Amino acid sequence: MERLTDKGTDPGYQPGKVPKGRKNPETRGVDSDLDDIARRVGGLLRTRTSAARAGHIDLAAYDRSVRRHTPGGADPADHPAPDGIAGRPVSGPVRGDLRDGREQLSRTLDAWAKARKVAAARAAAMRQILDDGYIWAFRSGST
User: What pLDDT was estimated at residue 23?
Assistant: First the structure.
């Protein structure tokens, strides 16, 4: 999210010619990316649940391992580090339940929107995209 503008748009967006009667909003690419991210997180949590139900994983051990291998989070309002996202320092521990992907997505969006002073309507639209994608993937099991 750090690459986005304070309006929640892609700074590299170059509007092209759009066929008559068709809209090509400047948020289209970002909205598509948010949906994709949410579907992947929802699918991951669906897979975790399915594997536990089938007896393939011990949830407690799995969740401890995830927590142990998650060093922390980075501030979503920061701009990208020059050497890429992997080189960015951790700004603190991940708060909340890592097993609740929807809550983690929402928490990240809210922190980013507040720090960037994103308009409430745009933040709400982005939150809805995340919710829709996450729930669709979690329920259907497909990304």
Answer: 64
Which tokens in the block code for residue 127? 């939150």
Specify burial of residue 118 (Cβ count, 10 A radius: 0-12, 13-18, 19+): buried
Question: How many Cα atoms within 13 Å fall on the side-chain side of residue 90?
Answer: 8
Inform me whether the pLDDT recorded for 143 exceeds 60.
no
What stretches of 20-83 show up as alpha helix (H) in DSSP?
28-53, 59-68
Q: Taking the complete model, does pTM exceed 0.85, yes or no?
A: no
Q: What is the pLDDT of residues 65-121, one digit of tens each?
A: 988 888 777 666 555 666 666 666 777 777 778 788 899 899 989 988 998 899 999
Residue 64's CB is within 10 A of a number of other CB atoms, namely: 11
Helix/strand/coil for 92:
strand
Phi, psi of 23 (to 5 degrees): -95, 145
